[in-house]
Amino acid sequence: MWVVCEADTDSSASGTGATPSGAEGGSGSTGKVVCTYEKMVPAPPAGSMVWGEKSPEDGSVYFRICQTGGPGGTRLVETVVLDEALDAPAIDPVVVAQQAVSKMKLAGPDIASPRAAGKYLVGVPMWLWVNKSPSTFGPITTSASAGGVTVSATAQVAQIVWQMGDRSKITCHGAGTPYTASHGKQESPTCGHTYTRTSASEPRGKYTVTATATWTVDWQVVGGGATGQFTELRDSQARVAIGELQVVR
Fold first, then answer.
1. In a designed cystine with 88, which of 4, 37, 161, 173 is the match (CB 3.0 to 4.6 A)?
2. What is the C-alpha to C-alpha distance for residues 212 and 127, in angstroms, rounded to an integer?
3. Cα 13 from Cα 18, distance rounded (Å)
C-alpha cells in the first residue's frame, strides 16, 4: 500500500515536475529553496494513487525533496511523475552535503570561560576558552545520499568570534587556552579580553557574552568527483558580572 503525504505550498504544483520558485541548485545558499530528485524504486503499480492522473506510460515516479533556509530549514517531500525521455534534474552535491550537515546537529560553542558563577574584575585579564566535542567544535563526519549520489562531509570549527557585551569583539582561531592559578594575572596566549568598566549599568548587572563559531564544511562525492567547501554559523551566550576591586585604607 502506498500512502502519499503532501503539504500545501505556493512554490510549486504537485505532479508537474516544475522546480519551486527561487530554487537555485548548486548555489548552496541557505536562503533559497533547493531541491533534489530521487527515483522511486520499485515503481508503484499501475493504478496506485501515487500516479495521480498519470500512468507508467507517462514516465517514472520521483521523490522531490525541497528544503528552505539551509540544514535547519523547512523540508518538503512530494512525488512527481517525470517523462523518461527527460532526465530528472541533476542531483546537486552541495544540497546533499547540506543534508549531511543537518544530521550532524551542529551546536554553538560550549563556553567554559567566562563562567556565569565566576568572579571577574576590571583590569584583570579574562581567559576565553571552550570545551571541545564533536558537535560543538568538531571534527565530525557524516554522509547523505540522494538519487544515487552519496556525499561525505566533515565539519570543523575554524574560528570563534567573541562579542563581550562592552562593544568589544575578539576573533580567536582555536578553542582557547584553559586558565590555571599558576598563570596569575597574565594574559591568555591565545584568546582573552580585559574589561575596562564594570557591568553594574548592564541589565541585571551582567554583560551578555556571545560566542559565534564558524564551522568549515569540506565535502566530497563518494567514489570520486566533485568536492567543495562552505561554512555554517552557530552561537552560544553567557552572562558575566564584572566588578571593581575596592581598596580599603
1. 37
2. 16
3. 7
3-class secondary structure, 208:
strand
User: What three-state secondary structure class fits 6?
Assistant: coil
Distances (CA, A) of 231 to 23, 40, 234, 242: 20, 32, 10, 34
Amino acid at 181: A
- Dihedral angle sign, alpha carbons of residues 66, 72, 73, 77: positive
Which H or E run includes 81? Answer: strand 75-82
Task: Please give the radius of gyration of the chain, using alpha carbons only, rounded to the nearest integer.
Answer: 25
Look at residue 183 and tell me whether its pLDDT is greater than 50.
Answer: yes
| Mean pLDDT for all residues in the chain | 83
What the block records as the C-alpha cell of 185 is 594575572
- Per residue in 15-30, is it b (16+ CB within 10 Å) or e — as a string? bebebbeebbbeebeb
Comparing CA positions, the residue from 99, 97, 212, 80 lying closest to residue 157 is 212
Contacts of 160 (CB under 8 A, 6+ apart): 109, 130, 171, 172, 175, 176, 191, 211, 212, 213, 214
Q: pLDDT per residue over 202-237, tens digit each?
A: 999 999 999 999 999 999 999 887 899 999 999 999
Q: Which residues, in sequence order, are bridge partners of residue 11?
A: none
